[in-house]
Design goal:
The protein is of the alpha/beta class and about 220 residues long. The chain has ten helices and five strands. The termini are far apart. This is Response regulator.
Length: about 220
């Protein structure tokens, strides 16, 4: 199955270079491009790509706002969004993941990393592992006062809360199963219910949710 990609970047040479690289892959096709955020939103709605490569900083409308609008579409029309930047990891990462972006990649990453990233997010996985996401969020929340427990957590059972807390620590399903002395299938069932109840797309968003709802506190030694 061919992965359809849209490239949004204000530099024509970047768009052309990425397109040449991705079109050379048998399983990837670049169906369009956009020089700014407004065009990215319009072309995404028109072309229905599977993955949008979105530059963070663009004229007219930046990549974060464009991603927000694209990711607000109904699930059946919502592509995966992979954010691109020339800057190192910072608050952009947190905001992009919070909105539902599937990953974050530096524009000067090796070509193989870009190709792999497109395949990973097209397959429905988050590019950033939960453990990496956790470290990023720890930095974002470190200087903020601890959040009070959110009423969103009331939708979860005590066991589901426990599983969410372990996801926030960066544990995989097998690791959670070992920690709770249950089967991996039982953990998968809990994870599916957590995602459905809290309207989460992936484990990266689950980590963010755990911090934003006050279930996990940045810097808490009990969560190490």
């Amino acid at each position: 199955m061919t992965i359809k990609v849209l490239i949004a970047d204000d530099q024509a040479m970047v768009r052309a270079g990425f397109a040449a690289l991705l079109n050379a892959q048998e399983d990837i096709e670049v169906v369009g491009d956009a020089p700014d955020g407004v065009a990215a939103v319009t072309e995404t709605a028109r072309l229905r790509p599977d993955v949008v490569l979105m530059d963070v900083r663009m004229p007219t409308m930046d990549g974060l706002e464009a991603a927000k609008r694209i990711l607000s579409a109904p699930p059946e029309r919502r592509p995966r969004v992979l954010m691109l930047t020339t800057f190192d990891i910072d608050d952009y990462v947190y905001e992009a993941l919070r909105m539902g972006a599937s990953g974050f990649l530096l524009k000067d990453a090796p070509p193989g990393d870009l190709i792999a990233a497109v395949r990973v997010v097209a397959d429905g996985d988050a590019l950033l592992a939960p453990s990496v996401t956790r470290r990023l969020i720890e930095e974002c929340f470190k200087a903020r006062p601890a959040l009070r427990r959110s009423s969103r957590l009331e939708a979860l059972t005590p066991r589901e809360e426990e599983v969410l807390r372990l996801i926030a620590r960066g544990l995989s399903n097998p690791e959670i199963a070992a920690s709770l002395f249950v089967s991996e299938q039982t953990v998968k069932t809990h994870v599916g219910k957590i995602f459905a109840k809290l309207e989460l797309r992936d484990r990266a968003q689950a980590v963010i949710c755990a911090y934003e709802t006050g279930l996990v506190t940045a810097g808490d030694p009990r969560e190490q």
